[in-house]
Amino acid sequence: MALTGIEIFKLLPKTNCGECGVPTCLAFAMNLAAAKAELTACPHVSDEAKEKLSEASAPPILPATIGVGDRALKIGGETVMFRHEKRFENPPGLAILVSDSMDDAEVDARLKRFKTLEYERVGLTLRPDLIAIKADSGDAAKFEALVNKVKGKSDGGIILMSDNPDILAAGLKASADRKPLLYAATKDNLDSVANLAKENDCPVAVKASGLEELASLTEKLTAAGLKNIVIDSGARTVRQALEDQIIIRSTALNKKYRPLGFPSIVFPGEMTDNPMKEAVIASMFLAKYAGIIVLSDFQGESLFPLLVERLNIYTDPQRPLATKQGIYEINNPDENAPLMVTSNFSLTYFIVSGEIENSKVPSYLYVKDTEGLSVMTSWAAGKFSADIIGPAILKSGITDKIKHQKLIIPGYIAAESGSLEEEMPGWEIMVGPRDAANLTPYLKTWKA
């Protein structure tokens, strides 16, 4: 049974150090009780307290991890029904399906699309995460050969799909070091698949024919010591699958019902034969509330919108996307190239850098950390003023790259030009255009 905030508080160190992100241990205890924080945020909690608090501090939707290393995918860990309440924690994984009944050319084509369909957006690399390998042939050796092929040609996470434990064992023989997701344990093979998961320390998916059966199966797995679990209600119509996703999330969050408190997996390709309709269904499950979405295939025109939707939904609304502070070289600048400064709000950076690239003028752009705020907002908040910009630029190392002492500032902070000249003795402060769209004609007039 979950502990109250006061009961949790009694087990905390009561240092009020603030290292957990809130000012007092009591506030942290209340967040733990409300499943709005994780116990790992407290660096001083004792091992004894950790053991007692593990249940109370676990999020309503337990996290699961598929894969290893840089491509490991963490899903679940969610604490709210709606993004505006706080934020969604871990973006769902997008998987492409390959089968051991496909010919080599088709498998190779799908693996190529998995590898090449990735996109740069606001400084982030958007790409799919998983390859679901399905044993349609019923031949363990053929399945193992396909798993070896996928493993050799991709560093993505792996889902092994079969209801036959012997075939799953053959796939594990080839991929156990990649910690694949075993799909799936059912009421008929639960013990065998659970043993495979325990012996190989792998996550396991549970497939049932409804939510009641699903809860019963997850209780058996957790009683066996398994926690890295993904769930599938078995629904294969859009309406029923959506209803199940909402019930799973709501029951786990609002009723604290642990048997359904796990990330889910859905298969839009089993709900339609139309590729574009499949993408629309997938987009719905990105919002409500799948942990893994297995697509029958990838195409750029459908995958890219899904990746962008995922980025938008799982971006913390309280923390704007930000670009790293530093000097950015654009169009191969030399010692005579102009130097500009802007804020580190990602949208601002990409608009400004894009206009500089379009101008074809070799330039340096210094991006100042403004906590992800735009030029005007950060200036109004006192985070992009002369006493902050000047020292940062002088310490940046830019003086080793240019021989002039001229700085172009955004027109929106023209009022800072006089103060900047005081902060940067000997420098000429030039006021650039207010809008990035006017940078091209402005830069054409540049002289060192």
Instruction: Give the rounded overall mean pLDDT.
Output: 93
| Helix/strand/pairing category | alpha/beta
What portion of residues belong to β-strands? 15-25%
First-to-last CA distance: 70 Å
Biggest β-sheet strands, sense, barrel: 8 strands, parallel
CATH architecture of the largest domain: Alpha-Beta Barrel
Low-confidence stretches: none
- What is the helix content? 25-40%
Shape: globular
**Total tally of structural domains:** 3
The CATH superfamily of the largest domain is known as Dihydropteroate synthase-like
How many beta-strand elements? Answer: 17
Number of helices: 16
For the record, the CATH class of the largest domain is Alpha Beta
Strand order within the widest beta sheet: 10-9-8-7-6-3-12-11
Rg measurement, Å: 26 Å
Assign the CATH topology of the largest domain: TIM Barrel
Summarize the structure.
The chain has 448 residues and is of the alpha/beta class.
Q: How are the elements arranged and paired?
A:
Layout: H1 5-11, H2 25-33, H3 47-57, E1 64-66, E2 73-75, E3 93-99, H4 104-116, E4 119-121, E5 124-126, E6 130-134, H5 140-153, E7 157-161, H6 165-175, E8 181-185, H7 190-200, E9 204-207, H8 211-223, E10 229-232, H9 238-254, E11 265-266, H10 275-287, E12 292-295, H11 300-314, E13 326-330, E14 339-343, H12 346-359, E15 363-368, H13 375-380, H14 386-395, E16 406-409, H15 417-423, E17 428-431, H16 439-444
Helix pairs in contact: 1-2, 5-6, 6-7, 10-11, 14-15
